[in-house]
Amino acid sequence: MRSVVDFAPEDVILDRAAILGSQGIPEEAELTENFERIYGEAIELFKELTEPAGIICGISISGFEEVFRGEGLNEPSNPVEDIYRKSGYLSLFAVTLGAVLSEKVTELFDSGDYASGYMLDSVSSYAADKLSDLAARNLQLELTAKEPAESQWRVLSYSPGYCGWNMSGQKKLFEVLRPQEIGITLNESYLMSPIKSVSGVLIAGSGKIHEFVSSYHFCDTCRTKSCIERMRNL
Ligand code: SF4
Questions:
Q1: Which of 198, 189, 197, 194 is nearest to 171 (CA)?
Q2: What is the average pLDDT across 5-9?
Q3: Contact assessment for residue 192 and residue 70, using Cβ atoms and an 8 Å cutoff
Q4: What is the bridge-based pairing of β-strands 197-206 and 192-193?
Q5: Under the phi-then-psi rule, with left for phi > 0, alpha for psi from -120 to 50, and beta for the rest, what region is 164?
Q6: DSSP of 55-85, one letter per residue?
Q7: What is 2-232's CATH number?
């Protein structure tokens, strides 16, 4: 079933240590007054301008096969393909923080206020990731409400552009999900607008299905190694 998900701005909890950590700043670092001002202003701008929204659409494994195949450019061996085939439930999703916030980031950079632009971009990127985590948590609650045994399941998000799923996969995903309804569009380079949007598939199943060894050839150039942290938290 396809449905629009309502999020409130306060649903996105901003974790200062994680946001600063994403900039390479350790928690115990002593920060200047000027830095604190820029950080505080970015948080206030985020609260004022964010308009979070989401859309999800349940899909069968055979239906997702076609979406995942996309333009035929995925890596021949990749973790997403192995995981989705073992899933108990799949849902396409897209979430966004809205156009106004993304436009403000661009405006700050364009005006030469790089420090404020970088900080708001950093806060927004963190928040967009948290919004996709919220979509996953909502799905987990929904599945558990229908079938209590599924409380043991873990729901994780996977997106085109990562882990061997080619970015061009966005095209098919958009054709099926149609997130234009909540204001997310795709350009010819498969980039989403607003920029602070995340799309992909939510994969639900036992924690074990999400476990794998990150030894694919493309892992050598992966900067985040985010799968390691995700598997640790299963
Ligand atoms: S190391 Fe990076 S590319 Fe490889 S599976 Fe993990 S997150 Fe994906």
A1: 189
A2: 90
A3: no
A4: unpaired
A5: left
A6: EEEEE-HHHHHHHHHTTS-S-SS-HHHHHHT
A7: 3.40.109.40
Q: Ligand 1: which atom is nearest the Cα of residue 216?
A: 4
pLDDT in tens, 88-106: 999 999 999 999 999 999 9
Q: Measuring CA to CA, how many Å separate 144 from each of 16, 66, 150, 233?
A: 31, 27, 5, 19
Question: Rounded CA gap, 120 and 123, in Å?
Answer: 5
Beta carbons of 202 and 135 less than 8 angstroms apart: yes
Amino acid at 32: T
| 11 pLDDT above the threshold of 90 | yes
Q: Which amino acid is at 33?
A: E
Q: Which residues pair with 198 in a beta bridge?
A: 95
State the distance from the centre of ligand 1 to the C-alpha of 94, rounded, in angstroms.
Answer: 21
Instruction: List, in sequence order, the alpha helices (H) in the chain.
Output: 16-21, 33-49, 61-69, 79-84, 99-110, 114-146, 169-177, 226-232
- The answer to whether 9 and 101 are in contact (CB under 8 A) is no
What's the DSSP call for residue 53?
Answer: E
How much is the pLDDT for 150? 82
The domain limits of the chain are 2-232
The region, left, alpha or beta by phi > 0 then psi within -120 to 50, assigned to residue 60 is: beta
Cα of 214 vs centre of ligand 1, distance in Å, is 6
* 200 φψ region: left (φ > 0), alpha (ψ -120 to 50), beta (else): left
Residue 179 CA to ligand 1 center (angstroms) comes to 26
Residue whose tokens read 């405006």: 107
Question: Letter for the amino acid at 96?
Answer: T
